[in-house]
Amino acid sequence: MKLEVRGIDEGQPIPERFAFGVYSPTDHMSFGPNKNPELVWDEVPEGTRSFAVIMFDPDVPSVADDVNKEGKTVSEGLPRVDFFHWLLVDIPADVRRIPEGEDSDGVFPKGKPGGPGPIGVRGVNNYTQFLADNPDMGGTYCGYDGPCPPWNDEIVHHYHFEVFALDVASLGLDGAFDGNDVREAIKGHVLGSARVTGTYTLNPDLR
Q: Is the pTM of the predicted complex or chain greater than 0.85?
């Protein structure tokens, strides 16, 4: 398979229009346009009955004690975990494109709804956990929400956009399914896949 994420070149910085958080010289971070990028894929395997999209950041700190704290840094040596930013399943087999801004256009406090979206079925991303204790933002975040790494992190984060061609029309996922549920559900059903990776940081020393 071939995947193009329009506006994002392999290994290069992700434009701010796709970000949940953008750099602010006064407050470290402010909300970004949070548009999903346009995905276009081709060279689909024979027998494909649906597609799934996963976007994740493998560079998220496993311990959040120092995240976004004045006078602190998130150490480069801290173990890292996956943070899911975008989950779409049951995308029909005749679809080859998700337009820019189709699944997300702006930051929605308390999150966008899950279930069937403009294209496919939305899963729950990890902003649900990250913002759970914020009274203004806490809620269930579904579909696409873009990069917003800690502004005091010592490393640049990597964001993997993946499309999977599957041999089933539906993964049978409903309710509040997450990234691990999608990864488990696609096991044994992947006919092909493609990935594009972009980078992002809010640390002014790394920009």
A: yes
